Structures are given as structure tokens and as C-alpha cells.
Write the C-alpha cells for this entry.
Amino acid sequence: MLLLSKKDIKEVFTMRDAIEANKEAFKIYTEGKSTVPLRTTIPATKQEGTMLFMPGYIENLDCAAVKIVSVFPRNEEKGKPVTPATVLLLDGTTGEVCSILDGTYVTQLRTGAASGAALDILAIKNAKKGALIGTGGQASAQLEAMIESRNLEEVYIYDIDIEKTKKFVSQMNQELSNYNTKFNVAKTSDEAIENADVIITVTTAKKPVFDGNKVKKGATISAVGSYLPTMQELDPAVLTRASKIFFESTDAVLAESGDILTPLADGIISNDDFNGELGQVINNEIAGRENDEEIIVFKTVGIAVQDVVTAKKIYDNALKRNIGINW
Ligand SMILES: NC(=O)c1ccc[n+]([C@@H]2O[C@H](COP(=O)([O-])OP(=O)(O)OC[C@H]3O[C@@H](n4cnc5c(N)ncnc54)[C@H](O)[C@@H]3O)[C@@H](O)[C@H]2O)c1
């Protein structure tokens, strides 16, 4: 069995690799070529925590994986991560666990890569300005995916916590200095999105995080944060202005995300406004962007197939390069 840390994964797997892996994952999912049972949730009431077990199997790739993610808010007092995660990868030909991967980093990579895949496919070709809203745990991978998908001149970054934003921006200007993009602090979310060609929202917000009327024509938005009916980042105004709305999984988004469920319940949008899944665009079953004026929205809540494909590709690369600890 191969043990793969974040450092090992970084050595063998780039954001571009992750974007391509996630395009493949969305295609496999949309074609119905994956088995994804509902996740199992075990409450750890005594500790006010929750343990989540998220399995998935892809016959054609001969692999399965289960991601174990715990949410233990009291860990903060103990100086431990609040949402520790681990991925167990199984060899689909023997059923044996063949690798254990740093699940926190796999999650960041695959979640960033979902936005990267969407922007790669849907954004205008000569995008110049980006906006990132949210500077938490997922944000750095989202930012890297954004600038991997388009050669942007600048990205304006906003979070309600201004000090955190300043720190994040200065860190990213160093860590991602190999890309020719300048990162700037935005004082408001509207300043961030003004004139932006690509926008990513990755917050824990329960109310819209920017004014949808201010989104410029031709913009592409990837909304990542809302995974519960009570969470919402997207201003319904941008959904009514959008000429296309895509999901990574229609079933998952319509079961989980307040971004879509709230305006649906309010009658602001209807099911007829949804164009389908990104996997269908990848398969050329439905049209993606048709001109530079369209506002396009992609909503993702995250599906296990992304973890399975990403972990499998990382493992294959690590084996080839002899990276990781054999156990
Ligand atoms: N779609 C997916 O596949 C996927 C995967 C992982 C996480 N998520 C979700 O993405 C969200 C962000 O994850 P994270 O790990 O970065 O969380 P985090 O808690 O580390 O960071 C969230 C950030 O959002 C900021 N924020 C909250 N409300 C805001 C607002 N109104 N405007 C601007 N900023 C605001 C906070 O200040 C914080 O910096 C969470 O809801 C998480 O569950 C989605």
C-alpha cells in the first residue's frame, strides 16, 4: 500500500492534471458509468462532531475510493483541523486498499479543478480579469485553477474578513508567482466582480455575496460554497440574467444547494432555466458558450466521482515516479 502525503501529491500532480482528471470524472458521472451510493453520516454527539463516509466505484478505471471527512468544530480548541479528511483508494481488480492519500489536499485539488474545468470549457477565451470571493481553506486551489484555465492579468480577491484577505493575497502573490497574474485585495465584493470575466465564490455565506446586476456580460461564474439548502452565495438576479446554468450533478445540486433551491422555491427561476451537466457539454451533447455576451453560471456541490478519479490519477503518477511510502 502506498501512503501519499500532500507533499508527495504536489510532486506528482499539477493543477492542470487535476483539471483534466475532473473533466473525465464529470463525463463518467454524466454517462452513468460510476456507482456512487449515498454517503453515510455518523453523528459523534458527545464531541459535537460528525463523521462522513463517501464511497464511489468506477468499473472502467478498475478503482474505488472512500473519502472519510469529519467535521469536529471543537478541534479548533485542541489545535487540530476542524475537517480532517483521508481518501482510501481501492484496486478494483482485487478489492484491496492500494493507497491512503491526504484527503484534505485531494478535496482542495478536486474542488479547485471543478471550477477550473468549468472555466476552461465555458469562459470567454480572452478573459483578463478574475474575481475570487472567499479566502478560506479551499481558496488557494480555486485561485490556482482559475489562473490555470485562463491567462488572467489580475484577480481581485474579497472576503468579509479583510485582514485574512490581505494575508491571503500576499501569500498567493508569492506562492503562485510562476503565473503572470497579479492578485489584489478588493474592499467590497462589488469591487471584486466589477468588469470580471471569471468569478469564483467559495464562502460559507447564507446570503448572496455579490450584486448579480453588476456582473458584466460575458462573465462565467463558478459557485462552490453552498452545499446546504440554507446556504446561498449567488444573487438570484444573476441567475435570471444568465443565458445558461450548468451543474456538475443535477441530482446533487437540486438536493443540496440553496443557490438554486431558494430562487426555485421563490419562483424566480424554474427547472426550464437549467441547461444540463458539464459532462454533457464535454460530450458535445449540449452547447456550452455560444458567444462572448452570454453570462454563464456553473454550480458545483462536489461528488464522490471527483475524489475517485483524482485519487486514482495521483496514485498512478506516484507509482510511475516511485513517490510515497510503501507500507
Ligand atoms: N463544491 C464542493 O465540492 C466543495 C468542496 C469543499 C468545500 N465546499 C464548501 O465551500 C465553502 C468554503 O470552504 P472553505 O473550506 O474554504 O471554508 P472556510 O470556512 O475555510 O472559509 C470560508 C470563508 O468564507 C468567508 N465568508 C463567509 N461569508 C462571506 C461573505 N458573505 N462574503 C465573503 N466572504 C465570506 C469567511 O470569512 C471564510 O474566510 C464551504 O461552504 C464548504 O463546505 C464545497
Summary: The pocket of nicotinamide-adenine-dinucleotide is lined by residues 107, 111, 133-139, 159-161, 164, 202-205, 209, 224-225, 227, 300-302 (CB under 6 Å).
